[in-house]
Amino acid sequence: MQFCKLFMLHFQENVSLKAYNTFGIDVKTSYFIEINSETMLFELLSDEIYLSHAYMFIGGGSNLLFTKDFDGLVIKNNLKGITIDEQDDESILLNSQSGEVWHELVLKSISLGYGGLENLSLIPGTVGAAPMQNIGAYGVELKDVFHSLKAVNLKTKEIETFNLEQCRFGYRESIFKKEAKGQYFILSVTLRLLKHPKINASYGAILTTLDEMGFRDLTIQNVSKAIIKIRSTKLPDPKQIGNAGSFFKNPEIDEDQYQTLKSEYPQMPSYLLENANYKIPAAWLIEQCGWKGKRIGNCGSHQDQALVLVNYGNANGSEVYSLAMDIQKSVKEKFNILIQPEVNIY
After folding, report:
1. Do 250 and 120 fall within a single domain?
2. For a surface tag, which of 24, 100, 107, 110 has the fewest beta carbons within 10 Å of its beta carbon?
3. pLDDT number for residue 209
4. Are 29 and 21 in contact (CB under 8 A)?
5. pLDDT reported for residue 8
6. Rounded CA gap, 230 and 209, in Å?
7. Chain centroid, CA 48 distance in Å
8. Does residue 40 sit in the same domain as residue 120?
9. Can you give the pLDDT at residue 110?
10. 342 an active-site residue?
């Protein structure tokens, strides 16, 4: 272990990242450090190891696929803290440090009676990753409740504030995955939540699941419980079998391509978007190509959800990546649709 001159930073060397990515891929990083405060972060930004090596920030590791060892510094975000910044009769501004676990933030907001996050229950990862991905599920996206965030400009070392417009949210996209990729470290996220929640239970099987569970009242607590049940039955637990959730984004196609495919595949599910394009479930496309439940060596497409690629215990990242590319190729050949990975690949 090495120490910086102020003895605040503790770098570990040649560390396995198996416990830090939900795929459970056993690769190593040259250096590893956990950051527990803003003070430690700013100390790190001036440290020789940080300045002289490639680096990577990670949170829960739920959106990563490592295909090889990382020759550099991996920085684990452990910034914690949840506070109410402002409130009025209708809403509150709930501020969370970026290292908080997303689902725990959701549960806390629900326990306080504030609505807006219930449809985003059980999404893996940390709060800091949520705006990067513009996470979404069951008819709700982060942008729907987003107020602002604070981030450190890694070049200038200044703290900047981003509002909704400046984040340029799109489908599983933001400025932090495009123009500003790798340029910022998100410190905290502020969300606007409602004191008098507006329930959104029309998407997917929420209403059916509520009925099956015997819930008659449409409350944020019940909606969250229903979504947790749905996700638990559809998506494998990374603690039991390595995976990163949905591996591919749901693709968009234009009207012409949609009509062509719909005539050939009348059963094809789709969702009309505001831009007049159609979103096609990637899971359906993958399943139609025969991948659902198929195992190739140590990895495969999950038996209950074709969109989830899993590590059966001994896969390396290259095996998973090869499988993903084979799936992508077969969907392209069959439907002329290129599905793009949602997972970050290194």
Report:
1. no
2. 107
3. 94
4. no
5. 73
6. 7
7. 31
8. no
9. 97
10. yes
Q: How many domains does the chain have?
A: 3
CB of 99 within 8 A of CB of 88?
no
Residue that is written with structure tokens 């690769």 in the block: 27
List average pLDDT for each run of 10 residues in the chain, which is 346 residues long: 56 96 97 96 96 95 95 97 94 98 97 96 94 92 97 97 96 92 96 95 88 92 95 88 94 96 96 91 97 96 95 94 98 97 92
Distance of CA 302 to the CA centre of its chain: 19
Q: How many CB atoms lie within 10 A of CB 234?
A: 15
- Supply the range of the domain harboring residue 8: 2-77
Determine whether 185 is exposed, middle or buried from the number of CB atoms within 10 Å of its CB (0-12, 13-18, 19+). buried
Which listed residue (148, 246, 301, 319) is catalytic?
246
pLDDT at 171 (0 to 100) = 85
Please indicate, yes or no, whether residues 228 and 253 belong to a single structural domain of this protein.
Answer: no
The pair phi, psi for residue 148, each rounded to 5°, is -170, 170
Residue pair 159/165 in contact by the 8 Å Cβ criterion: no
Give the tokens for residue 147: 């107020």
pLDDT value of position 4:
43
Tell me whether residue 255 is one of the annotated catalytic residues.
no
192 carries an active-site annotation = no
Place of tokens 């059966």: 312
Among 16, 47, 77, the domain boundary falls at 77
Residue of 100, 172, 174, 319 marked active site: 172
For the chain, what is the radius of gyration of the CA atoms? Answer: 21
Task: Round to the nearest angstrom and report the end-to-end CA distance of the chain.
Answer: 25
Q: Which of 100, 118, 141, 342 is catalytic?
A: 342
pLDDT value of residue 235: 85
The pLDDT of residue 143 is: 97
User: Is residue 155 domain-shared with residue 31, that is, in the same domain?
Assistant: no
